[in-house]
Amino acid sequence: LLISSSRVREQHQLLYPELKFSCNGSVTKWIYGAVNRSATGELPEIQIWRQTDIDIYTKQTFSRVSANETEPGTNIHEYYPETLMEFQEGDILGYFQPHEIESQIVLYGQRLSGPTNLNV
C-alpha cells in the first residue's frame, strides 16, 4: 500500500524486488505520477530487471517514458511503450530518474510506505 509520494529530485536508479511478475508477458501500458516540466532533456526509464545471482540483477529491457496526461490538471500519466517490454516470471520492476534539472519529466516515488526498493 502506497500512502505517500514525492517528486524524485536527484538522479536515482531504483529496483523493486518485492514487485515480481508472476507470469510471462509484455508490458503494454504504464500509469504513473509525474510532473511534466515541458523542457527538453533526458527522459526517465521504466525497466524490467532479472535476478541472475544472489543480489545481482541485470536490466533486461527499458522504455523511456513521455508525459501524456490522462486527466487535465492532474499529475497522472499513462504511457504506451513503442516496443513491448517483455518479462518472465520472477522479473522485477525498476526505474531510472535523471536529476530533476536535466529531466523533461520528474517522476513521483514512494515515501514512507509501499514496497521495499533498492537504491543502486
Gist?
This protein is mainly β. Helices cover 0% and strands 51% of the residues.
Layout of secondary structure:
Elements: E1 5-7, E2 12-20, E3 25-27, E4 30-36, E5 45-53, E6 56-64, E7 76-79, E8 85-87, E9 92-97, E10 105-110, E11 118-119
Antiparallel strand pairs: 1-10, 2-9, 2-11, 3-8, 4-7, 4-10, 5-6, 5-9
Strand residues, percent: over 45%
The tally of helices reads 0
Helical coverage, percent range: under 10%
Low-confidence stretches: 1-7
Shape: globular
The radius of gyration over CA amounts to 14 Å
How many beta strands in the DSSP annotation? Answer: 11
Strand order of the largest sheet: 6-5-9-2-11
Structural class: mainly beta
Mean pLDDT across every amino acid position = 76
Sheet of most strands: 5 strands, antiparallel
Distance between the termini: 23 Å
User: What is the N-to-C succession of helices and strands?
Assistant: EEEEEEEEEEE
In words, what does this structure look like?
The chain is mainly beta and 120 residues long. It contains no helices and eleven strands. It has strands at residues 5-7, 12-20, 25-27, 30-36, 45-53, 56-64, 76-79, 85-87, 92-97, 105-110, 118-119. A hairpin with a 2-residue loop joins strand 5 and strand 6 (56-64). The relative contact order is 0.42.
Short descriptors:
mainly beta; globular; 4-stranded antiparallel sheet; 11 strands; disordered N terminus; 5-stranded antiparallel sheet; about 120 residues
